[in-house]
Fold:
Amino acid sequence: MKHQKQFKTNLITLSLLSLFSSFHSFAEQAQEIINDEAIEEVVATGTRLKGSASAVIDERKNQAFVADIMGAEQISRTGDSDAASALRRVTGLSLVNDKFIYVRGLGERYSSVRLNGAIVPSPDLTRNVIPLDIFPSSIIESLAVQKAYSPNMPAAFGGGDVNIRTKSIPSDTLFKVEIGASYKDTNDEGYTYNGGSDDWLGQDDGTRALPNSVKTALNTYINGLSDISYRNIRDVESKRTGADIGQAAAIDLNKSLAKALPRDFGLEKESLNPDAGIKAVYGDRFDNLFGLDGSFGFLASVAYENEWSNAEKFSAVLSSVDASESACSQDDFTCYSATEKEVSTKHNIKLNSSLNLGYKIQGHDLTATYMMLRDTEDEASVALYQEPSKSLSIDAGQLQRSHLTSFEERELEILQLRGTHNLEWGFLQGVGVDWQYTDSTATTSIPGELKVTVRDEYLDGKYKRTFYNGSLGGNPYLYRFVELEDDVENWGVNVNKVFYFDNAEVEIAGGGYFVEKTRDYRTDFFNYRFSQTQALELAQSEDEALSIGSFFANDSVIDSTDVELLFQEPTADDYLAAQMIDAYYGSFDITFAQDWRLSGGVRYEDFRQVALAFSRSAFNPALLADKLSADAIEQASVMEDDYFTSLSMTYSQEAYQIRFGYGSTVVRPDLRELSPVQFQDPLTGYRTLGNPFLESSALDNFDARIEFYMDNGDNYSVGAFYKDIDKPIEALLTESDGRFTLQFDNADTAYVYGIEAEWLTELHSDFLGGAFFTSGNLTLSDSEVEIAQEQRGDLTNLKRRMTGHSKYVANLQLNYDSHDGMHQASVIYNVFGDRILAAGVNNFDDAYEQPLNSLDMVYSYYPTFNTTLTFKVKNMLGQNFEVNQNDVLIRSQETPRELSLSFSYEF
Structure:
C-alpha cells in the first residue's frame, strides 16, 4: 500500500509537499537506527581511568568501521559541561564558536549529528548543524564519532558522524544532585538593561515582543507595498472610509504604532554575578512490578545554568595589501581604513529536562524519551566605529556609536520511542530487530532586537555629546523580530540475522530510514525615519549615552519629534522549505579464518527538497499561497536519488588490528543555503546570501588505521585518510561599494588528506600515592579547493585550503588517579592550526583564524563514596580569539579565564 505522510504545518508548506507527491510516490514507511548497544557496566579494580576506558575501548575495537568512542566517565574527568566541549577531546576534532565541531579539519557542513541514531533539527538561525553546546553532559552516556561511512548511516556524510547516546534507565535507585558556581576574569563589569520577569527562565514575558496592534496594522496597511508610511496609511484609510482622513490623522495612526513598540532599552553598566547552576538526576528500576514479568525503570533529569560572559572585541578593514603588522595599531589608521571596538555582554540561561521510561523483558527492550533543551542568549553591547574617509574619527570630531539589545530564545523539544528485540519465534529465531521513531521541533525566536546607531561628537579628542540628525540617513533605530520553526519527523527499522559456518560467521542486515522536515522562517524589520531638519540631542556625557535606547520611552517624546515608523521589507527575507528522504540499505559483516573481517553494503536514498523565499506582503498565509505557482516551486526544488556504497576490511590479532575502508557519500546544501535570503553570519560578521542553484557534493572517502592493544590496558593507534570532493560547497566572498557579501556556490574540486595518532599509556603506577597516565591524539592534514575561473569574481586565490580546515589538531592529557580512590586530576591541552575564516578578495590574502592554545585543569576529591567535590580552571593561558589577514590583526575577542567549583552528592 502506498502511503502519503502529511506535515503538521501551515497551508503553504502543505502545498509544497503535495507537489512532491506528484513528482515521486513514497515507499512503505519504516526507519533505520544504528544498533547502539549499551556500554556494559565495568567494575574497575585498578584506576578510574583504566576502568572507564576499557568499555569504550572494547566497543571501538569491535566496530566494523573506523570510530572513536568517549564514555561518560571520560567526559566527567575532563570537566566538560556539554557535548561540544567534550568532543574537542576526540581525535581530529576541533571546536568552533564553542558550539560546532569540525571533523578532520572540515567545516561543520561535513559533520552530521544524531541523537540515539535519529536526526534532530537545529535551533541555530544560521547553521544547519545543531549547536552541540545545547546537550548537557549530565544526560550523555557516550559520544560515538564514526569517521568511516557504513550503509546503515545517512548518506550525508563528510568528515564524520557524531551520535549522542543518552543515558538509559539505571540498574538500581539513583538520586544525584550537583550544584556549582564559576567566575570569569572578564566579568567584573558588563552591560545590562531592563528585561522581563521571566528572563531567568530563558523566556520573554512579552516585554520585547511585536505587539498585536502592529501585526494588525501590517495586515491593514501594507497591502503589497511593504509600507506603513503616513502616505500609505492615508490612502488605505481613505479608500476604506470613502473620505480623506487627512495628513494629521495619518501621522497620529503611524505614531500610535511607534508607541506600541517596546522602547525601554537603555543600558546600565554594573557588576556581573558569578555563574551558577544546579543539576539533579533521579531514577529507579522495578522488577516484576504489579506481577508483570520484566523490569520497569525511569530516569529523570533537570539542569539549570545561569551564565554571564563579557568580552571586548575588535574588528577592522585593511587599507592596503602592503600593511605591516609592526606598523599597525588599533588606535591609528596606518593599516586600517575602518575599525570598530565593541564591548559585548551576554547572559545565557540553559534549562534542560529529560525523562526516560524503559521496559525490559526476555530479549526485548523498549524506551520512551522526552527531552526539552532551552538555551537563551540575552545580549547588550556598545560599539564605536571609525572610518576617516567618511570623517568618522576622533581627529575628525565624530564617531559612530551603536547599541544593541537582543534576546534570542532557542529551544529543542524531542519525543523519541526506541525498541530492540531478539526474536526466538520459529524461523525468526536469532533475528534481531531495532527501530526508532523521533518527532522533534526546534524553535528560535527573537521577540525583540533593537540596534541604535547614532554619532558621538568629540572636541580636542574628548567626548562632548551624542546626537543624531535626519540628514545623516541610515537606520538610527532599527527593530528586528524573528520566528523560526523547524520540524523533523524520522523513523526506521533495522533487521539483522547471524549465520554460523565452520570457519566463518556472517551477519546480514537491512532496513529503511525516512525523514520529513519542514521549516518556516519569518523576520520583520522596523525603523524610524526622521525629517531632514530633525535634530536629536541624545546625551551630554558618556554615562548618559548608555540610555539612548530609552530615548523614545516616553510617548511625549515621539509626539514632539518629526519621526515616522517604517516597515523595512527587503526583496526576500522570509522562506518556507521542506525536505524528504526515503532510504533503504542492505549490508553484510563476514568474519572468516578467525582473523579477517569484511563488512560493507549499499544504501539507496531518494532525496527531495524545496526552499522558497518570498517577501511577506501580509500575515495571512492563504494570501501568499495563492501567489505560489507549481512552476515556481519546481524551479526551487532539488530532487535526486542515488546509491552509496561502503566496504571495510579488518585483520585482527589479540594485540593489534589493521583496518581499511572506503565509502561513497554526499554533502547536500542546506535549506538555508538554497534560499536567496540575506542574513548576518555571526562567525565571520559578513552578510551572507543563499543560492538556489547549489548542487550536492559527491565524496569518495578512504581510510586506513592500525590499532595496538596492550595487556596492561595501554593502547595506541595510527591512521590515514583521504577524501576527494566533487563540486564542494564553499562560501565565496565578493565586494561592492565597500560592503562584503558571502554567497554559497559550488567550487570545482577539493581534496583533504592526513594522518591521525592516538594513545593512552601509563607513565608511573606508584608515584605520589597513585598512578599517572597520559592520553591524547594528534592529527596532521592538508586540503585544497579549486575555484573555477568563471567563479573568480573578486577572489584573490583560486586555489587555497578549504574554509575551516586546520593543518593540525592536538589534544594532550596528563592524568592522575590516587590508589585510595579519593583523588583524581587531569591537565588538558588543546590546540588547532590556523584556518581560513573567509576568503580574501581584491588582492588581499585569505583571513586566517589563528591557533588557539587552551590549557585546562580539573581536580576531583571524593571524601566519601557518595560525595564529589570538583575544581576546574579553564583557559589558563588566557589566549584570545584572533583573525589575521596579510599577517595583520583584523579581528579579536577576549577569551576569559574561568574558575569553577561544584559539589555533587548521590543519595
Summary: Confidence is low (pLDDT under 50) at residues 1-51, 618-624. The longest helix spans residues 48-62. Residues 522 and 574 are 5 Å apart (CA to CA). The longest strand covers residues 431-459.
